[in-house]
Amino acid sequence: MSMAGEAEVSSYADGASRGIFNQAWGVLATLLCVLLTTVMAPMAAMSAAMSRYHAVTVLSRIWARTILTLCGVKVEVVGRQNLPGSGPCILVANHKSFFDIFAVAAHIPGEPRFVGKKELLKIPAIGYALQHSGHIVIDRQSGGKEIRKAVESIRRGFTVCVFAEGHRFNDNQLHEFNDGAAWLAILTKLPAVPLAISGSGTFMPRGAMVVRPGGTIRLTLGPAIATAGMKSADRTELTHKLEEQVRADFVAEI
If 65 and its partner were Cys, which of 42, 91, 106, 173 is the partner (CB 3.0–4.6 Å)? Predict the structure, then answer.
């Protein structure tokens, strides 16, 4: 066999070995992440029941950082200076993967909370922790109740992250933003900060059951947009500005 042929065979064997290793790593990491979640979710639920909101934040940060480490995921944060000091804000982000949540919870300073769907409440312990620790769970039937809860969460000093596309997408493209995040920012008079999340769709896209380990997520924070003085009628224009900034900062590959 020629040297070129031997090199080709060797390269193929190395690639196959890496593929098998990554698959095994992904399965093991997924199992460990599930185990970690089953241990930490009840702790977060107990802290939430005692209204120890900062303890929930600390537990969430440990949980998220550990998951990222187990899965070999590095997180880069660009534009941290665009966050409004030590005060809360509304983060308006795109959404590709569960790893978006882990990256934000682990690396955005302050007391980050998320807007999620009511189906999450059905998950044992996790659902209770979400409902009682300042996260905002959307239930269209509850109407004003959820709005009041959102305002209450923000008054406690929580930064609220809204995934403005509505749900996760697998096509590695940005989709039209809903105006709910802009409306919430205007209602609470908090600055709206565009957040572009790049690279996260690689690790666990929608529908995946096993993590694809290794790689980098980039969180790019754009300039904050002040909402003081804005009215509800301004939410469409604000949504367009936020979406344009996220599109400008998003990169398909890292």
Answer: 106
